[in-house]
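The methods section describes the discrete structure representation at length, but only in general terms. The central task, working out the structure tokens from the amino acid sequence alone, is never made concrete. Nothing conveys this as quickly as seeing an actual entry. For illustration, here is how one protein appears when written out as sequence plus structure tokens:
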Amino acid sequence: MVETERQIQTIDFGEEYPGAEIPTIFADGVRNMANSPYIVKFYFYRLDPNVQDSQKAQVRTCAQAVLPIDGFINMYAFFERAIQQLQTQGIVVPEDLQAARKAQVDQWTA
């Protein structure tokens, strides 16, 4: 295997706001993940309500993201910091994280 230099760094994006042409999706979560030594691929899902019965919802895959491993590591660090900030603001409480971690363990071991 070829050793590559990691691209974990702070990046100056050179823009204050993204342009209007950037696609937007709504997702309720991440459905699954696959990886190779070089990339990580995962699918977002959303819960679409049934128009006939408000008690039913359908899980639908709505987008795919593919990142190099370094990009995935950078994204993890970004979200880790975002969760810390949300906790500081009182928006996320430790019980929320515990429940989400348990759900992930249950899903991956099922």
